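Quick review question:
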């Protein structure tokens, strides 16, 4: 059978970074383009079972129309945070469930007490006191859940952000999905990096050997969750191969961030620069954002910058480093002199100004767990990245040199990357920034993430097993 492909030239560039398999699917599914092309697609199935789709759902196109049915969704999340305090997991919860509530679904959030809950339509909170260890009190949240489930409409689907709902309770729930924001197997990479960077004066910890037991423990209890969402391609692979979960229960949905807030706006960047007194004469602005702690690689970049500033006064005088966020390393950075500004924590909207003001976003994180939202925010604003060579980052985000630079977590490698960025200069960086935004618009918007989750939830909420339309992907 021959199928007319209304294929679009603009997607080709983007697609070339994926395997030919994905390319085939993509070519098949991309619509709305001009050039006519005839390709025999005998080998491509007309329909695709979403539950066994091997790559990120973000690659697929979901229609933007009203949902075919409105779901009642239970969400279990440890904390419901405020924006500027939110870590990765909480940000994911906030972005995703605000979007789903806005689409008309009824969200019930089971979480521990929070100081300020915004009143958003369709979003209902069930609060409880956390346990001493900081987890949700499982007995209490379960009781709240059962009450809500038996009064009026019952829940269509249950979502747990990591172990928000523990495996002891998740066992018999076939309509449950858990999103993992860091699993023990990924943490082993972080542990190895920390051990390699350990000051010989500091005693070795037992974390390295303990972590392996933790992995085994996870492999044993993960099957008690019906469906698993991996937030990177790498984690999807680990869940299927090392955690041995069946393919049809592992789904890759990459994180997304709010594309209405994070977008190119030169005026916002200029405003930001004048507010913080950044000199226009500087030829290159490097930006970092997040918690200023050891885990995020601040000791490493501190040392790399210290050495470079000493080696090259030209570098020091032409470059400015902006650091948004707070934490123990904020004070240390003052030692690096006037080429580095610590800005403190920024509000959500200010953060968009920050990304617009910089030329390249630097994230030297040593944490292999999860997928850092800051990378996606910078990409949506149209900035190239410079980040640690961690599998989630190289596999899902900086997939080529077009998006940015990667380095091994050592002072030497980081210095080399910094010099390379400096040598490339603004012109090259702007070009990479455009590629970064193109990729981010395709994959990393909150809208795309919410659409993929909505489809997954519709699919697993459906009781009919024989002909479930939501688990099937059609052109
Ligand atoms: C909660 O936060 C919103 C927006 O951040 C603010 O307008 C509101 O006054 C706050 N409410 C309370 C009770 O602090
Ligand atoms: C929620 O309510 C529905 C309908 O009454 C019931 O079938 C389902 O088992 C309940 N869920 C749980 C976890 O109790
Ligand atoms: C799950 O179902 C089994 C068998 O029906 C039952 O023995 C077990 O107590 C249930 N577990 C939970 C957590 O409800
Ligand atoms: C700075 O570089 C010089 C050589 O160029 C070296 O002698 C000196 O020790 C360095 N200082 C620091 C603080 O690294």
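Suggested answer, residue by residue:
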């Amino acid at each position: 059978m021959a199928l007319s492909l209304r294929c679009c030239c603009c997607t080709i560039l983007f697609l070339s970074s994926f395997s030919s398999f994905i390319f085939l699917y993509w070519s098949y599914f991309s619509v709305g383009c001009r050039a006519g092309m005839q390709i025999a697609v005998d080998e491509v199935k007309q329909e695709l079972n979403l539950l066994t789709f091997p790559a990120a759902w973000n690659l697929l196109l979901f229609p933007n129309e009203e949902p075919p049915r409105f779901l009642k969704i239970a969400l279990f999340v440890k904390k419901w945070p405020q924006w500027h305090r939110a870590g990765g997991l909480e940000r994911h919860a906030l972005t995703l469930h605000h979007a789903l509530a806005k689409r008309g679904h009824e969200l019930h959030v089971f979480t521990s007490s929070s100081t300020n809950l915004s009143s958003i339509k369709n979003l209902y909170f069930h609060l409880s006191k956390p346990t001493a260890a900081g987890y949700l009190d499982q007995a209490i949240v379960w009781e709240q859940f059962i009450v809500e489930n038996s009064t009026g409409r019952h829940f269509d689907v249950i979502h747990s952000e990591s172990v928000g709902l523990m495996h002891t309770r998740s066992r018999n729930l076939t309509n449950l999905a858990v999103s993992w924001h860091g699993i023990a197997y990924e943490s082993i990479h972080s542990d190895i990096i920390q051990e390699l960077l350990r000051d010989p004066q500091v005693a070795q910890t037992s974390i390295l050997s303990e972590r392996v037991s933790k992995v085994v423990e996870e492999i044993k209890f993960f099957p008690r969750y019906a469906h698993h969402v991996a937030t990177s391609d790498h984690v999807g692979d680990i869940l299927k191969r090392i955690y041995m979960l069946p393919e049809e229960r592992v789904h890759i949905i990459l994180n997304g961030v709010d594309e209405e807030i994070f977008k190119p706006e030169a005026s916002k960047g200029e405003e930001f620069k004048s507010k913080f007194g950044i000199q226009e004469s500087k030829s290159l602005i490097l930006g970092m954002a997040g918690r200023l702690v050891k885990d995020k690689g601040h000791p490493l970049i501190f040392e790399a910058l210290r050495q470079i500033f000493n080696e090259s006064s030209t570098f020091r005088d032409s470059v400015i480093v902006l650091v948004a966020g707070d934490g123990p390393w904020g004070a240390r950075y003052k030692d690096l002199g006037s080429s580095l500004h610590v800005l403190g924590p920024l509000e959500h909207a200010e953060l968009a100004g920050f990304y617009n003001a910089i030329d390249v976003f630097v994230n030297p994180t040593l944490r292999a767990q999860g997928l850092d939202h800051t990378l996606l925010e910078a990409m949506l604003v149209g900035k190239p990245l410079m980040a640690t060579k961690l599998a989630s980052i190289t596999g899902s985000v900086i997939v080529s040199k077009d998006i940015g630079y990667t380095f091994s977590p050592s002072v030497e490698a980081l210095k080399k990357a910094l010099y390379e960025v400096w040598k490339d200069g603004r012109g090259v960086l702007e070009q990479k920034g455009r590629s970064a935004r193109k990729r981010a618009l395709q994959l990393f918007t909150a809208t795309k993430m919410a659409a993929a989750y909505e489809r997954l939830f519709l699919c697993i909420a459906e009781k009919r097993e024989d002909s479930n339309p939501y688990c099937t992907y059609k052109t």
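Why it works: Residues 1-43 have pLDDT under 50 and may be disordered. The first strand starts at residue 2 and ends at 6.
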